[in-house]
Amino acid sequence: MADMKETADKVKEAISERIVDPAKKAGEAIRETGSAIAEGGATVGMKMIDQAEENARSAFAAMRAAAQAKDLTEVMKVQGDFIREQGTRSMSQAREIGDLILQFGKDAAKPFSPKK
């Protein structure tokens, strides 16, 4: 009878080590990943709003400058300057968003990375 109880305890311990504990760790990793994804999404969303505000301010500044232009040549210069600056700004903003997404992807994957 003692052997049977001892065997049952060993089986219970083996099941716990091989199934229950890894399942708990996987659940914790999924929970951490969900939190990281939510935080990353909020950060990216706020950055995009900030960038949209910056772009709108620049567009209105260019429209003001064009409205105050003395001739068509000056309007064309304002427009050209705005387009060039907007292109540079767009590339920079896309890089910022890409870097944020890359970083939050790495952060979200950390719980699944092997611990050292």
Characterization of the model:
The chain is an all-alpha fold. It has one domain (2-110). The chain has helices at residues 2-67, 72-109. It starts with a helix and ends in a 7-residue tail after the last helix. 0% of the residues are buried. The mean pLDDT is 86.
Topology:
Blueprint (H helix, E strand, L loop, with lengths): L1 H66 L4 H38 L7
Helix pairs in contact: 1-2
Strand segment count:
0
Q: Determine the number of helices (DSSP H or I, runs of at least 4 residues).
A: 2
Radius of gyration: 28 Å
Which regions are unreliable across 5 or more consecutive residues at pLDDT < 50? none
Q: What percent of residues adopt helix (DSSP H or I)?
A: over 70%
**SSE class:** mainly alpha
**Sheet having the most strands:** none
Report strand %. under 5%
Rounded mean pLDDT score: 86
The tally of domains stands at 1
Euclidean distance between termini CA atoms:
43 Å
Indicate the overall shape: rod-shaped
